[in-house]
Please model this.
Amino acid sequence: MDTTIMEYTAEDLISHKLQRSGILVAKPKFDNEGADLLAFLGVSDGAKFCRIQCKGRSLINSPSSTIDVPKEYVTDAFTLFLFVETGNPNSTHLFCFFGKDIRETWRCSSDNRSFTLSLSQKKLSDDLARYEFGDNRVSELKKVIINVNVEGEFHKVMYGYGEATLPAIRMSGRGTFIPPSHTKPKSR
Model:
């Protein structure tokens, strides 16, 4: 099932909620290693960040759904936000899972390459309530950003970095100027 529209809705909702909570959000021009968004507390020198993956799922036409996340994404600087649409316009189901939460509570896939979470209406209210995005999760996310070891995270959001120092460029040129002729062309 194509979840593209739900993913964009989730990303917009998550950006809004994070910014209202005092967390700066950047949208990279790539989705590399699960980095749909980057979350910062400031943008000064030495700024720290965490990678945010945004997921959206609907339980309107199906009683269940699943989410898979590759294991290599799930570091301590990785956070997965999940928006679940249930059809109730008065309820927003937004959950926040940190790397530790995923490693400790999600099921490993049979090939041991990803973590999987199964969703259902019952699970939303029973098992996932502690992951609901609110003030407690905001405080924890801020701690994750402050305590992250960015040394290993930059390779997850960049393809490379280069620096070059070049001497001043000198240029020279030659040319010939031919003024336009002011005579009328001869008729044949």
Remarks:
- The first strand starts at residue 24 and ends at 26.
- The chain has five helices and eight strands.
- The chain has one domain: 4-155.
